[in-house]
TrEMBL record:
UniProt protein name: Galactosylgalactosylxylosylprotein 3-beta-glucuronosyltransferase
The organism of origin for this protein: Petrolisthes cinctipes (Flat porcelain crab)
Residues passing through the membrane, by range: none
Residues the entry annotates as binding Mn(2+): 106
Residues of this chain annotated as glycosylated in UniProt: 209
UniProt-annotated location(s): Golgi apparatus membrane
Length: 245
């Protein structure tokens, strides 16, 4: 059969959480043989998230872990690291074959990327569209091999890629029990891929030699919370908790 796709989605409670999870879920409904690990960074589980996951019919695993308190205090936090690691460790304990992919809750996915990463033998990479003037973060491919990277911030990274721009074979991961993601802002991807001990020449370029953008690093605009202004709840015809007295 098809190799299993383990999709690890870090999420956290905020007004945007359920809409982001809704968009991601509706995409993943088109993807067969999938385990969706939704890993929440929270001290208590969000009931609306849990009920959405239960109603979705998707093959979900819910995990909850909090960002260590020393990182919660700093301004530039290593977002999603503790919860991605919880997903990674779940796959280490429960996965035998297939592919793991880190899919943030707020990105935009074309289902073609899932059918391509499914066949990753070691580590695959592909472009990530950016909604900035840069336009994309991508491996540079010559004659079918990754020879460099295009990204707005190369820094001193060996693998200057976006979190959504790579996937890893599960058996390959299981052979590397020390591999993990550092709590180092900006270096999470690079640190993780380096910990896998892979050479750039071994990377499998996908999306037609990295010529297609099948995942976008999108962000939902933060809105100021509006004050409730409903004056006649009886006519609204809703049972949402927010309108209950
Ligand atoms: N995230 C998290 N805890 C946080 C902040 C973010 O688990 O305190 C998750 C978030 O839901 C997303 C991922 O980590 O799936 C990356 O966060 P965000 O989208 O805010 O980062 P950006 O894309 O702006 O770098
Ligand atoms: Mn994001």
């Amino acid at each position: 059969g098809l190799p299993t796709l383990y999709i690890v989605t870090p999420t956290y409670p905020r007004a945007e959480q359920v809409p982001e999870i809704t968009r991601t879920a509706q995409t993943l409904m088109h993807v067969p043989n999938l385990v969706w690990l939704v890993s929440e960074d929270a001290s208590v589980s969000s009931p609306a998230l849990l009920s959405y996951l239960n109603e979705s019919g998707l093959n979900t695993v819910y995990l909850r872990v909090q960002m260590p308190s020393k990182y919660q205090k700093v301004k530039n936090k290593p977002r999603g690291v503790a919860n991605r690691m919880a997903g990674l460790n779940w796959v280490r304990s429960n996965g035998k074959e297939g592919v793991i992919y880190f899919a943030d809750d707020d990105n935009t996915y074309d289902i073609r990327i899932f059918e391509q990463i499914r066949w990753t033998k070691k580590v695959s990479m592909f472009p990530v569209g950016l909604v900035t003037s840069l336009g994309v973060s991508t491996p540079i491919v010559r004659s079918g091999r990754v020879v460099g990277f295009y990204d707005g911030w190369i820094a001193h990274r060996t693998f200057p890629v976006d979190m959504a721009g790579f996937a890893v074979n599960v058996e390959f991961l299981l052979q590397r029990p020390q591999a993990g993601m550092p709590y180092k802002v900006g270096y999470e991807e690079d640190g993780f891929i380096k910990s896998l001990g892979i050479k750039a020449s071994e990377i499998e370029p996908l999306a037609f030699n990295c010529t297609k953008i099948w995942v976008w690093h999108t962000q939902t605009k933060k809105n100021d919370p509006a004050k409730p202004v409903a004056q006649n709840n009886a006519t609204i015809g809703t049972n949402m908790d927010i309108l209950k007295e």
